[in-house]
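User: structure tokens for this one?
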Amino acid sequence: MNNNIPDFQTIMYPMLDTLKDGQPRTLNEVMDSLGKYFKLTEEDLRIKVPSGQMGLFRNRVGWTRSYLKNAGLITYPSRGVYQISETGKKVLTENISYINIAYLKKFEDFQRWQNSFSLPEENIKQEENVNKTPEEILGDTFKDLNNKLGYELLEILKNKPFDYFEYFVLQLLSKMGYGGIEESNFEVVGKSGDNGIDGIIYQDKLGIDRIYVQAKRWKDNKVQSKDIRDFIGSLSLKGTNKGIFITTSEFTDDAEKTAKMNPQNRIILIDGSQLVEHAIEFNVGVQIKKLYEVKDLDNDFFEEL
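Assistant:
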């Protein structure tokens, strides 16, 4: 690997310094400035990550911006555009010349990011993997990437309008097999006077068998027992006992107990972490970036020779 390309932590401070004037910049503009800062050649910039789909330097800059953003040091004012935050400006006034993960841990936003999914650090020391097989290391890496993706997806959903979240939820449930895959099989109905119902999934062509959905796009508040009771009441008004309650936050223990209290009601609860797990599994709001095939010897082939 070419040593001219810095690791993503080494890029952190220079990237923040590149944005110090407060002006929004595109990724290409940031890449150009950082390339000059690190004196990278055209040959350096042509080096790819192992999958071959992205430049190594661009990939590392991408990780850098993600860490700085989740620490609250930069913002994304629009898609593909980056800007220093007030917190980032304060960092540049400190007597430091290097930012790494250890430094970012002092910021509450960063702590919250890691704690939300118990994210491991990407700079795991090699000796920690010494007793693991390559398959175990590959599996851990896959899990880490999905954890990071899940967190970022959840943050996006928390900041989208309510009606968008409701539509996202119904798209996901449809992809999971509820009501088939046609958009005509589900309906967004969330509005004033909807009696707490945000969507309807039609299980059959005539719409006789229905599942009612409530979607709560909450950032921090947990779903309480009262919210579940209200939902059950709304289902009763619709003459059914089947419902799915989905939230971007979490359910309290009492809320979970309330959902299971009456066995006649079939209430499925899906919290934020489960929501993004399902979204990643069924490719809703995400896309496949690269497929890797893990191959093993075909012992039967050699036995036949």
